[in-house]
Amino acid sequence: MPVIAEYKSKKLIYHHSLSTGSEPEFFTLHTHSVSELMFFVHGSAKQMVEGKMYTLHKNDLVYVKPSVYHRVDPDLSAEYERYVLMFDPEIIKGIDGADIFESTAVVGCARDGVIPEIIKKLDYYCLNFPKESFYELATMLLREIFYNLSVIETPKTGSQSSFSPLLSRAISYINDNLFTIGKVSEISDALYITESYLYSIFREQLRTTPKKYITDKRLLAARKAIMRGARPTEIYREMGFSEYSTFYRSFVSLFGYSPSKKISASAVTIFGENR
């Protein structure tokens, strides 16, 4: 995937890239421990954010919150260009512009508007300033983007279509009961469908399983709590695990280190099962 500019640290990841489909695994269903802001430049693609699919257009701005599963479905016969910023959501805390994304994941920006001009500055700063300076500049630009979103009177939200209503309802049920669901059958029972049918919906439309979807979200929440000072042996039950040994094995399998290991904040990406 040709990269025009890129930066990576534990606090921020940035890349401006082109793609011709040479790395299809890049578009696999995944989620992050941090927020992601994507600016779509050109191409033909759809953006899936949990239970909704958005058709992307030039200058669309996509915002995905931590622990939300998403993927891009591009037309691999056409060039696809985008800017991506992955960051701690605390950077934009308190800015009203983030409220726009409570009801949609995609907002259209005017071609000659201020936000596309802000985005373009990222390459210049990334290519011409030291890494330490770029981090400071990029966080200021992020805040500037969201401040400008806060003064848009009638933002143009992205065109969207839902997956099957059952999938949307299943995702809503999981998100509302993430830490109390005991068995996958509880979800299918709540939707009045069979467990096998629920699995087939997740496999066909999200390319993962309900169990993995739930477990990964719980582990991301646990990792966040541990990084804030919680003891793994005291919070595993709060995260929906009945036994510490199960929690420990799942945590190590997903992140590659034990829950008790001291680590600094960093972005983590988790993929669906069909990598």
Summary tags:
single chain; 275 residues; alpha+beta; Jelly Rolls; 8 helices
Radius of gyration: 19 Å
The shape is globular
Can you identify the CATH class of the largest domain?
Answer: Mainly Beta
Strands in their spatial order, largest beta sheet? 1-2-9-4-7-10-11
According to CATH, the fold-level topology of the largest domain is Jelly Rolls
Query: Terminal Cα separation, in Å?
Result: 17 Å
- The unreliable regions are none
Oligomer: single chain
Please give the CATH architecture of the largest domain. Sandwich
Helix tally equals 8
Q: Tell me about the largest β-sheet.
A: 7 strands, antiparallel
Estimated structural class:
alpha+beta
- Indicate the percent of residues in helices: 25-40%
Q: Indicate the mean pLDDT.
A: 87
Q: Would you count the extended β strands for me?
A: 13
In total, the number of domains comes to 2
CATH superfamily annotation of the largest domain: Regulatory protein AraC
Strand fraction equals 15-25%
Give the helices and strands as they follow along the chain. Answer: EEEEEEEEEEHHEEHHHHHHE
Can you put this structure into words, describing what you see?
- Strands 1-2-9-4-7-10-11 form a seven-stranded antiparallel sheet, with helices on one face.
- The mean pLDDT is 87.
- By secondary structure, the protein is of the alpha+beta class.
- The chain has eight helices and 13 strands.
- It is globular and about 50 Å long.
- Helix 1 (114-128) runs antiparallel to helix 2 (131-149) and helix 6 (210-227) crosses helix 8.
- It has helices at residues 114-128, 131-149, 165-176, 184-191, 195-206, 210-227, 232-235, 244-255; strands at 3-8, 12-19, 30-32, 35-42, 45-49, 52-55, 60-64, 70-74, 80-87, 106-108, 156-157, 160-162, 269-271.
- It is 36% helix and 23% strand.
- The longest helix is centred in the middle third of the chain and has 19 residues, at 131-149.
- It folds into two domains: 3-160, Jelly Rolls, CATH 2.60.120.280; 163-264, Arc Repressor Mutant, subunit A (Orthogonal Bundle).
